[in-house]
Amino acid sequence: MEIHEAERVLIYEHAESEYPDECCGVLLGIKEDSLVCKIVPLDNTDEYGRRNIHYTINPLDIYKLECEAADEGLEILGFYHSHADYPAIPSAEDTRYMIPGCSYVIVSVDKKRCVDMRIYEKEAVYDELDI
């Protein structure tokens, strides 16, 4: 997946502005091109006072965004979020909730400054079925 510099800057700005909380948002584009055309910052709606180590996205926001994106000829390619004072690697929780086929951008923010950005995908794993 490719993310142009302008979109990277938007992610960095969002991550730095939310520090020390985790920011989150959606990556929109065209799957066959593997190019992110639009970044949509969303609110971290975590209700348990853990926004510095956890993010939650309202599913209705994703649904609305998916409908709007389709009108523009775009689709959800994945999601992004930040880690405050932690490397840009998926936590156990991140890995558990990754959706196969989606890309996940993680930004490491150290003392209010972005220091690293990495992209991850979870491979689909299917159990064998006895028929």
Can you walk through the features of this model?
This protein is α/β, with parallel strands linked by helices and 131 residues long. Helix content is 25%, strand content 34%. The protein is built from three helices and six strands. Strands 1-3-2-4-5-6 form a six-stranded mixed β-sheet. A hairpin with a 2-residue loop joins β5 and β6 (113-121). The longest helix is centred in the N-terminal third of the chain and has 14 residues, at 5-18.
Average pLDDT rating:
93
- Rg of Cα set: 15 Å
Number of helices: 3
Please tell me what the overall shape is. Answer: globular
Number of strands: 6
Q: Which stretches are low in confidence, meaning pLDDT under 50 for 5 or more residues running?
A: none
What class would the helix/strand composition place it in? alpha/beta
Query: Could you give the order of the helices and strands?
Result: EHEEHEHEE
User: Major sheet: size, sense and barrel closure?
Assistant: 6 strands, mixed
What's the helical proportion of residues? 25-40%
- The rounded distance between the terminal residues' Cα atoms is 37 Å
Strand neighbour order, sheet with most strands: 1-3-2-4-5-6
Percent strand equals 25-35%
